[in-house]
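Appendix B. Raw example, untouched.
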Amino acid sequence: KRATWLNGNLFTDKPIDDDAVAALHALGVPRAMELFKEVEEKADEVRNPSGYLQTAAKREGATQMTGSAVMTKGAGVAAVGDRAGYSKIHKRATWLNANLFADKPIDDDAVAALHSLGVPRAMELFKDAEEKADELRNPSSYLQKAALRESSAPMASIPIHSNRTGNAPTRDAAYIKIHKRATWLNANLFTDKPIDDDAIAALHSLGVPRAMEIFKDVEEKADEVRNPSSYLQTAAKREALAPMLVDSIANTNGKGAAVVRDAAYIKIHKRATWLNANLFSVKPIDDEAVAALHSLGVQRAMELFKDVEEKAEDIANPAGYLQTAAQREISRAAPLAIFTGVAPKGKGRGNAISHEDDKIHRRASWLNANVFGDRPIDEDAVAAMKGVGVPRAMELFKDIEEKGDEVKNPSSYLKSAARKEGFAPDTGNAGNVGNAGNAQATRKRAASGPTSEKVVKRSAWLNANVFQANPIHDEATAAMCSLEVSRAMELFKDVESKEDEIKNPSNYLKAAVKRELGNQGRGTKRTLSTGPASAAKIPKRRAN
């Protein structure tokens, strides 16, 4: 890379060649950079930068390979190499020189370069050179260039992405395998449009097995792929792991710091990526759905993925389907989303599951999935936020998000803030809160008792097994919670038996509940107790 920069900016008419790069490589990166700096400073005086650099390298003895097989480490410190391996390579070169290349023998530099690849690969390249003997004008140069393309050592100084300390990560065996495969493809298929280091880095993050599958894919489509590097990077991004390291898959908290994705998130995201690539390419599962599933844990997320995979042809919006399923299960058996609305301070409102309440629930769910996974915001805190109203709730949510690690118990923080403003979740002592708090307590008891739990479970079952394409939504479930459990089950049984006739089970159930409650208007407010006899009179009021 450094030589390329110098060629592009200083030595355009007399570029540094591969032989010079190979010679410098033997010295190690630190010394090579010093020599590059030296030749850069003397640019106007140096007529042949390649010759200058090769001579400098020879003076330091790094490229003179002898029978003792002295090699150099990347740090520029000499170390005794593999004599047996070097001897095998040298013998093979000697045989080729005596039988095929007597007038253009393979030199020591080429032998040294091949030695860095190891005996098996060196023998393969020797065989290749032997088969092309009549075509090769300079077998030494041919072999050096081949070795240079495949050398994993020079790559050790080229970072894929820096770690937190700014240092380049160590190249492991997986990286070397992927790099060698890319080198082969470049030499045989993509000579005019080689696979670059960024693409190799992206594939490395996926692991060797998957990288090889993608390489095979691009090899089969060689004639169609105009830019193999871009093709591979895009494929890696779809698989999600590489982008998670460097760009925007990870959401950020209020301070702009990336939220750490744990092993569970990675597993869930990979599965979603597979489904998107194989089943839902036109209607992919989005990051919000992945985050929602992450809050349920890997095991349950995989069960839901299996469910959506089996119903792939029937599901128009897999992301919405998964989010709805996660919302039903989040936190407890009775989901947060079915809690009836709590009026903002100073304003009366009796509508169940308002759009504003849904905003609060979604925001709390997002924070639980992305910021407070180990200490999630609980139901009481969400109910308290509904009490203060959406604008103020969003301010408080933003406040705790920005404070992140400073807030040890986000639920207590939110409930305390709501209590200061005259709202609080039901604590068993309604006298401690204002009228709005009493109303909230009444509604919360109605929505979270045994009846609610049974109704919610039955609704969830019907959505998973009967109404996948048009599930019963939360508003209808909340309405069903206002009935006695026995009557609610009768209506569920009724709607199940008419599944082929009913296009919208949510509307069907809400209409049935209205009839049960005496066809009362939209502004009706029903106060419920937790006991079996909850037939309180329902006063009417004018709808807003």
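End of appendix B.
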